[in-house]
User: Fold this.
Amino acid sequence: MKIGIYGYGNLGKGVERAAAQNPDMELVGVFSRRDPSTVETLTGAKVFAADRVEEFENQIDVMIICGGSATDLPVMTPRLARSFNVIDSFDTHARIPEHFANVDKEAFSTAHTALISAGWDPGLFSLARLYMNAVLPEGRDYTFWGRGVSQGHSDAIRRIPGVKDARQYTVPIAEALEKVRAGLQPELTTREKHLRECYVVAEEGADRALIEKQIKEMPNYFADYDTTVTFISEEEMKKSHSALPHGGQVIRSGKTGGGNSHVMEFSLKLDSNPEFTASVLIACARAIGRMNARGVFGCKTMFDIVPADLSPMDPAELRSHLL
Amino acid sequence: MKIGIYGYGNLGKGVERAAAQNPDMELVGVFSRRDPSTVETLTGAKVFAADRVEEFENQIDVMIICGGSATDLPVMTPRLARSFNVIDSFDTHARIPEHFANVDKEAFSTAHTALISAGWDPGLFSLARLYMNAVLPEGRDYTFWGRGVSQGHSDAIRRIPGVKDARQYTVPIAEALEKVRAGLQPELTTREKHLRECYVVAEEGADRALIEKQIKEMPNYFADYDTTVTFISEEEMKKSHSALPHGGQVIRSGKTGGGNSHVMEFSLKLDSNPEFTASVLIACARAIGRMNARGVFGCKTMFDIVPADLSPMDPAELRSHLL
Assistant:
């Protein structure tokens, strides 16, 4: 299967590496908005200017779009769906119906297959919620995230005057997690589920107390949480906080008809959020290429993907090895 | 959706209760090999003689076959697939290819849809293995079972002369589980993964030391494990060991292309193995009915089921609530 990568940040680099782990995948090239001559790839993949992408219309089975959800993907995914089968990791939950409709229109009318919101949340965690809800209709879901770096919250801190760099970790609260795992179905406030740990490099002479206050009182991002702020040096930031770990768990507990209790849990512990997300995208590329070949067109989510389509094994092999 | 239950043991009773939790399911009746007048159902479902089942050919969308894997299902599922869309929970791993072929032939030639090996293992655990392998191609899988009652091992003990009743719990070894969860990818022998705890009611005057020796040395079942044998009274057996809890976890740890490690885990903690398995079968019945209506015929496994088909929610609802 021939794939392309559109956008070459952390996620695009992860896709490049993930493609190299899957012998059935051939990476045709990386498309970047930067000058291709200035972009060096990790595995020697070719780099092309993003505005030349349409020239590759018949050379790429699936294009993996590695842009941001805020402004890139709402434009890129529908546009590229006119020329390619596409996959993105759009994660702005509230705007999924709108994005889905836009992508579906373009993909369907040009006989392409598109997958939006692939990755782990949305993605594998969404699938866990779906399977768990279908199996245990009377119950309650919980999702915990972390311990992991939230890019959005780190960026929000960086926008505060006097902040040179910042890293925010979302941390699930162990006590809440224990109650949920025990099947107690607790009522939990936002504050009771997660802590926010912030590591901040302040500019010289900046008012640290003011920065800390601005972080802790920031609405939506921090005000509803117990938040810790630790000022560190630039060296310390580079040394101890340059990785992008993440993870979390989806847990559903509920009762079956005879009154018996059950707890289901899906959890991830990831050393690199972008590399793992990229690995999910590669498996999805396999499925989307196969669906397009079978004549299934339009926009899909991971809810619409037959599990067997994600695997390089053939159906008989899957049944004898994994069933 | 109109369903039937063929076989009315623990699993059949669980399906009856699970159907009552799903408003889109209508239970037409239970088919039993016993005299229907002697069978009392939990929710008042009608009971019919098993040999009258063909009369219901056009009144049931999906027949859920609740028989044993050793001798019942290899005969029942192919035969009933001639007249119905069918689901079973066939769990003899080594014979799955043969059972699949037999059921596929009958279902396909009569335009029915069949699902074999549904439940949690095989079933949800198999799905977890498939998703995890597709996403992390370089890694290692582990499956732990328990703490839970193994029916097969309990039966094996009951066949020893002098044993009146027995219950065997499979118990995962905490130390092994911890190593796997830490991503260490240990090499584990059978003995290092699970313990076997046996509770035995001996007949009066039986040689307990001999019974214990026979259990511990029984090949395949116990000889490769650390096994404990505790003799208890009949009252104690009834009081403390009449539930059928089970569960376990599928864990895969592996590395992505940049050398980062990841651990994925799916776990179940079930107070009633048959009630939970039955709940999975009901969700699968929904999917199989839908697939048949779309003209998808032949034998399938949970690997072939589009996740969205398992849910009573429509696709737009799924995207806005669970994605």
User: Anything to note?
Assistant: Chain B has a mean pLDDT of 97.
